[in-house]
Amino acid sequence: MRKLYLSGFLSVAQTVITIQSEPLLIKELSGGDIGLTARMLANTQGLVGVLGVVVNQIGGKFSDVLGRKRFLTLGPLANILFGLLIFRNSHNRRVVLPLRIVRSILTTFSSTVMLTAALSDVAQGAELGAAISKMGAAVGAGIVITPFVEALFLQRSNSPRTAYLLLSLLGFVHALFVGLSVPETLRRAQRKTLASAMQLSSINPFGFLNVFRRGSVGLQKMVCIQTLQMFLEGKNLSDLVELWKREHLKWTVGESRNFVMIYGTLSILSGVYVTPFFLKNLTARGFTSATNMLNLLGFLLRGAREKSWIFLLAVLPMLPGVNGASATALKSISTDLATAEGFGKGEFSAWTNNLRALAGAVATVLYGNYYSWCKRTGISAGTTFALAGLIGAALPELILRLTKDNEIQRTKVEGA
């Protein structure tokens, strides 16, 4: 598991290494127009979600046949090439934007999809929930360390394209680590047949609809709750947050770096201490409800005023459930229930991540275009955060309250 956590850390590092540089680069490509920058960031990230369902579905199914390890290396190997291409063609929109899309798809597949499947190979039940929480700490570590490196190069080079050389280097280190150190988690006795993966139905990008066709009512509701909670996932808000910090709070590169590092440190501490404490002392329903309400409070505060202290204060209530952690309790239960109902672990991981990708597509397009509309009409752009809180916290909380206790079970309840 420790090797999987380190793989997760390296994946996050490859995402975060351009967290400031990519919006700056796209702002240059849009001629400094903030509204156009927001739309370009949002629409390309939206395509990531739509196209990602195909990769997640096919890759997840084939990982049930071939194992997880080779797919864990796919994203890092791609990032070696993509980083070099963007560095050499940083002023070419036709290169930068398509590679932003493909890079995000493959990095997400090799990290979230494959790591979730790999963890479920070696842990079940409460142990899986704890493992997912510790993976959150690894994510936090990546968020803490990587921005310091990016900001150091960004300040010295005065060019956002430098970060893409670092992306290539991280991809090389990650691919080497997985190849030499990470073991295969899927035993041969657990693998599906190649014939099952080659069926047309198996590569259907909308295979996740099987959850709603063949899954129990409880599984369906838990999947819906988790999907809506992904509207608050960090990568769906990172571009908006960067625009807010730079254009509204007037933060410098150094100030933004310091915030990301502090935020990442708090995320680590929360992943190691706070979230596990909540998981241990609350029921799955209690944990999910508490983190939903805390997320809602945080997002309502976050854009209430263009004040740095309010933005910083809003971080605190979000920590136990930030960046998808609010789904931790239901994720382990739904994974076990899906296995009991006959769904493959890699397949189910791909399905839930397809729903996550679609949620991300809708979220980023909605936030970016709503923000752009606010800029045109004079409405407070901070209401974008309130919109995110309503969709990603209030709505899943409503569904949770309509879910019966006997529907939140690891196995089917007879007569339910």
Automatic annotation (TrEMBL):
Note whether Signal occurs among the keywords.
no
Q: Return any one Pfam family short name.
A: MFS_1
Gene Ontology MF, one? transmembrane transporter activity
Q: Where in the cell is it found?
A: Membrane
A Gene Ontology cellular component where this protein is annotated is:
membrane
Q: Does the keyword Metal-binding apply?
A: no
Q: Which UniProt keywords apply?
A: Membrane, Transmembrane, Transmembrane helix, Transport
InterPro entries to which the protein is assigned, alphabetical: MFS (IPR011701), MFS_trans_sf (IPR036259), Sugar_transporter_CS (IPR005829)
Q: Which residues cross the membrane?
A: 71-89, 101-123, 135-156, 162-182, 259-279, 309-330, 379-400
What's the protein's topology in the membrane? Multi-pass membrane protein
Q: What is this protein called?
A: BglX protein
The species this protein was found in: Symbiodinium pilosum (Dinoflagellate)
